[in-house]
């Protein structure tokens, strides 16, 4: 496979070239070799970007993705790395899911109070819980 320019890689992954430069700056993406002063990306960079994008779609932050790439022993298998980062992310999503369910429950409820003041009094007295 021929090497690709930063614009070609950015277009292929739906990113801005500045995002690729930022990924290099924070160490997620290795700086590519240059030809005539321009970045030239090979298949290794594309593979790293595929993993990065999958991790982003899974909800990982850039800091977490940086850990995935850099904070493990080189001999640590990708599945172990992923699992280590996924466990707290799953707990985070479970908590968010519970919060969303509570929000939906509150939004679906109706109130029989005549005024907001009455509603507030009933909430304080634990008689009403919108």
Helix content: 55-70%
Number of helices: 6
Compute the number of structural domains: 2
Give the SSE string.
HHEEHHHH
Largest beta-sheet characterization: 2 strands, antiparallel
Give the distance, in angstroms, between the N- and C-terminal Cα atoms: 60 Å
Widest sheet: strand ordering: 1-2
The CATH class of the largest domain, by name, is Mainly Alpha
Uncertain segments are none
The chain-level structural class is mainly alpha
Strand segment tally:
2
Assign the CATH topology of the largest domain: Multidrug-efflux Transporter Regulator, Chain: A, Domain 2
**Residue share in β-strands:** under 5%
Radius of gyration (CA) equals 24 Å
Shape: elongated
Looking at the overall shape, the CATH architecture of the largest domain is Orthogonal Bundle
Q: What is the averaged pLDDT score? A: 92
Characterise this structure.
By secondary structure, the protein is mostly helical. It folds into two domains: 69 residues, Multidrug-efflux Transporter Regulator, Chain: A, Domain 2 (Orthogonal Bundle); 59 residues. It is 62% helix and 3% strand. The chain has six helices and two strands, in the order ααββαααα. The chain has a two-stranded antiparallel ribbon with strand order 1-2. The longest helix is centred in the C-terminal third of the chain and has 31 residues. The chain is elongated and about 75 Å long.
């Amino acid at each position: 496979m021929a090497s690709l320019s930063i614009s070609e890689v950015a277009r292929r992954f739906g990113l801005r070239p500045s995002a690729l430069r930022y990924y290099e700056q924070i160490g997620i993406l290795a700086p590519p070799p240059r030809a005539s002063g321009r970045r030239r990306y090979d298949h290794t960079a594309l593979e790293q970007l595929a993993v990065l994008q999958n991790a982003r779609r899974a909800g990982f932050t850039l800091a977490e993705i940086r850990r995935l790439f850099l904070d493990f022993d080189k001999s640590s298998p990708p599945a172990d790395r992923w699992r280590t980062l996924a466990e707290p992310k799953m707990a985070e999503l479970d908590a968010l899911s519970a919060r969303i369910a509570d929000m939906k429950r509150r939004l679906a409820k109706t109130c029989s109070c005549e005024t907001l003041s009455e509603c507030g009094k009933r909430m304080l007295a634990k008689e009403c819980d919108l």
